[in-house]
Amino acid sequence: MHPNEIRVRLDDSTAxxxxxxxxxxxxxxxxxxxxxxxxxxxxxxxxxxSSLARAGFATLLLDLLTVEEARADAxxxxxxxxxxLLSERVAAAxxxxxxxxGMADLDVGLFGASTGAAAAIVAAAAxxxxxxxxxxxGGRPDLATAxxxxxxxxxxxxxxxxxxx
Length: 165
Hints:
Layout: E1 4-9, E2 15-21, E3 29-33, H1 43-54, E4 58-62, H2 67-76, H3 83-99, E5 108-113, H4 115-126, E6 133-137, H5 146-151, E7 156-159
Parallel strand pairs: 3-4, 3-5, 5-6, 6-7
Antiparallel strand pairs: 1-2, 2-4
Helix pairs in contact: 3-4
């Protein structure tokens, strides 16, 4: 399988890019929320996504920033910790999945890395019935608000390094 490039429209003039891998009979769909300085081309997340695809899951690796925002962020770091902005992008991807042919009825899982983990938690809190599970790999769930953490209904899995306190 090879991923298809997709665009998630945010409004009439803005879209974010993603890579969708959709097996014939998917068991669910996993939306990847990359963190600061990363993209859908992250080798780590591509490796996880390909393993999940082999197990029968659809995967959507998503760039949470537009090309222009990512370019500016590389110099200013103005967007990478804007959890409100990033979570809106994750929420838009959830809505995109729920409207997409072949995926509308699938359970949605969120896989967040770095600041993408906080964005996934906030998006899951805002859509408690749309998200079935959340995984944070080396993430920053501490950047999500306490209210969002309290509102999450999906079971979370926090994967941390052996030397993380």
